[in-house]
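Continued from yesterday's entry.
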Amino acid sequence: MINYKGYQNKKILVVGLAKSGVAASLLLHRLGAFVTVNDWKPLSENKDAQQLLDQGIKVICGSHPVELLDEGFEMIVKNPGIPYTNPLIKGAIAKGLPVITEVELAYQISEADIIGITGTNGKTTTTTLVHEMISKDQKKSYVAGNIGTVASEVAQIAHPGEAMVVELSSFQLMGIRQFAPAISIITNIYDAHLDYHASKQEYVEAKAAITKNQTENHYLIVNADQEELMDAVQHTRAKKVLFSTKRLMTEGISTDGEQIFMNGESVVRLKDIVLPGRHNLENIMAAIGAAKLYGVSNESIRAVLGEFAGVKHRTQFVREWNQIKFYNDSKATNILATQSALDAFKGPTVLLCGGLDRGNSFDELSASMSNVKAAVVFGETADKMAEAAKAGGVENIISVKDVKDAVHAAAESAESGDVVLLSPACASWDQYPTFEVRGDIFIDEVNKLK
């Protein structure tokens, strides 16, 4: 950890706790800042705030009073989940105060090599693959960010010559000022989080921000099959490394349908890759690019791809029961992710879907339901999901209360040889605090089947 002096004796407000807020507060306190923490949850119900209070950090809980801005803070560290429309955040920006997210702190103190990964879909799989490939090559690697440990915590223990592989959301990337990973990846861009972002353009710009501070000494690995994405990063100063699942290229990462090549060199045969699904080919190519740039051998890359079957909550095989295979894809929080999951299975499928209603329709999902023999719908979008399934030709549509009931309804509808797939196409927040909790409930209920 670099002993960063930039925060000594500075008044800094941390808005919003959870893991990233707690980590940022403790780090800033350690770096000599005068830290005030503000969280909406009352102190009596707020274990995180109580922990910080015990450390001598000032805590204000129960609301986000705009009057806090009168106390002369020099910077705001915002929890990524708090929107920029929050009155306190809007007021800070109006005053010209820097508003950053915790990953900026991680960058400022890190001595390790940072590999940053973003995109609408595939971030977690790609992040995990890069980490596994580096680790297989006998190099020290840490997973950080949206998966694993908070980035600013990892940055305090990672050493020079080690890698921090950081999954980054658009929410986090909107709050960077100097953050510049040695290697960055943008897997893809689709409509998502438009309830948070003011527009699709703002969302795309937030994703492209991963490369805005990169220099000629850095690399950007980017999906060449998406014109919108290529336009968004056209002004990067980083060396661009393109990947394509649709055409064979002499430079970058691509495939002839039998092998994956990087700069004309064969890296791995497709038949030796365990991870299923066409959508995962993008993730695999991006991961290969980062691993090769980091000096990982083809042997280590092949070894990982020959055994890596997926990450938890992303098309995760859970169990076979009565010759029915159950898969947990709870991390599919948008339509495209669920379409990709459905495309990965060619046989009869019982789809479990539904969740937070963000106001969008699910018409696009209908065309991907040709193999869906039954749809079990739940949550705020249950009726919309039922309409999409009906439009897709699904005749057996079952409405249930939640994921727990959905498992049992699916088990009754499925037959030998079928797949039961939890792939909600929605965020979990109408019923569950995170998609992980939703997925874990699915796993528990599947494992209880007798």
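--- second protein ---
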Amino acid sequence: MKKTNQYQHKKILVLGLAKSGVSAASLLHSLGAFVTVNDFKPLDENPEAQGLLEQGIKVICGSHPIELLDEGFELIVKNPGIPYTNPLVAGAIDRGIPVITEVELAYQVSDAPIVGITGTNGKTTTTTLIFNMLQADKEFHPLIAGNIGTVASEVAQKATEDNQMIVELSSFQLMGIQSFKPHIAVITNIYEAHLDYHGTKQEYAKAKANITKNQSEEDYLIVNADQDELIELISFSKAKLIPFSTTTNLANGSSIINGMVSFLGEEIMPKSDITLPGDHNLENILAAVAAAKLLGVSNQAIRKVLTTFKGVKHRTQFVDEISGRRFFNDSKATNILAAQSALNAFNEPVILLAGGLDRGNGFDELIPAMKNVKAMITFGQTASKLEEVAQKAGIEIIKRVDNVEKAVPVAFDLSNPGDVILLSPACASWDQYKTFEVRGDIFIDAVHKLK
């Protein structure tokens, strides 16, 4: 870990705990900062805060008192989920107090070069593929971090010059960077998302583009060349542009040429040997191949991963086959585009399980992808909206249930051998479940109970 004196004796407020806040507070404390932690959850219900208190860190729990801003903080490290409209955050910005997220701290202390991956969809799959490709080549010692697992600032403290940090990054995290600069940045795609946080698609896209704002001519930016809007968005970048495309042969990037996965014109392997299903995953694969090749990973290691990798948990994850029915867990499909991608991956009859948090949007955009859906089972706040869309799509069998667990046996009863039973909610989980992972695990358990 790099030693830095820039936080020594500085008065810093860590706002919001969860994993990122705990890691940030502990790290800053070890770097000599005077840390105060503020979390909304009461102290007696907050083991994380209690643990920090035992380290000698000042803890204020139960509310976010605006009076904290009068204590002379020089910096605020914000939990990514706390919006900038929060009175404490907005007040800090009005007073000129810098507000960052913990990925900025990770960059400042990491001895390892960073590969940063962002985008609306495909981040987790692309991050996992890059990590696996490096791991398959014995010359590399990758560490995976960010939204996909361990907090980046925690991993960075253990990273050495022999490691490579592969970090999945959200728009929320990227809004809070100052000097953060990945050696290789990847933007998988940009679609409308998280408008309840960002307000507009333009602000959301701008946050994603922050991944390249500090890159230099010695760095690389891997982007989806099939999105003209994205290419325009990152036109300011100083990094070397490495495009990938599923539709165009690219001599200067990553693409499919004559049926072969190719990078800079070099053939790596036949597309037909890839085990990961779905056209949407081809984008993720091409982006990952570009990152791996730029780092010097061997073609043999890349081929080993792409001929064995079958997906990330909760992302079009094959769960089981029961009496000729195949079950897939796509709980990570928290928006319409992700659900479209999952539906388009199957040619068999599909029974779709969908529903969740109502963010005020409609679902008509799902209709073109529902051509193989023979039945829909809905749940959650958006159940009635999805039922309307199913009717418009001409789906005759529509059932509403209380939750995901109850949806599974209903789907099985409606299915025939050869059918796909797909959980792809097209919505966030927070109306009924703490996370999409919890929702997906409940689906998996319900499938196993059928046996």
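The longest helix spans residues 279-295. The two ends are 49 Å apart (CA to CA). Will compare against the first tomorrow.
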